[in-house]
Amino acid sequence: MYVELSVAGIPICGYYKYSWAERLVAFEFTRCNRRKPHSLIFIGGLSDGLGTVEYMADLVVALQNSEWSMLLLVLSSSYNGWGVGRLGKDIDEIAQCVQYVVIIGHSTGSQDVMHCPNPRPRYPVLDTEFEPLTRSPVNGAIIQAPVSDRENSPETMRELYCQAVTDAKRNTYKDGDTIETILPLSMTARIGYPSATAVSSRRFLSLASPGSPHQPDEDDLFSSDLNRFVPPRVDKQLLLKRMIIPNASHAPSDWDQAEPRRILVERVTEYLDEVTKTGWRF
Question: Could you tell me the superkingdom of the organism this chain comes from (predicted)?
Answer without folding.
Answer: Eukaryota
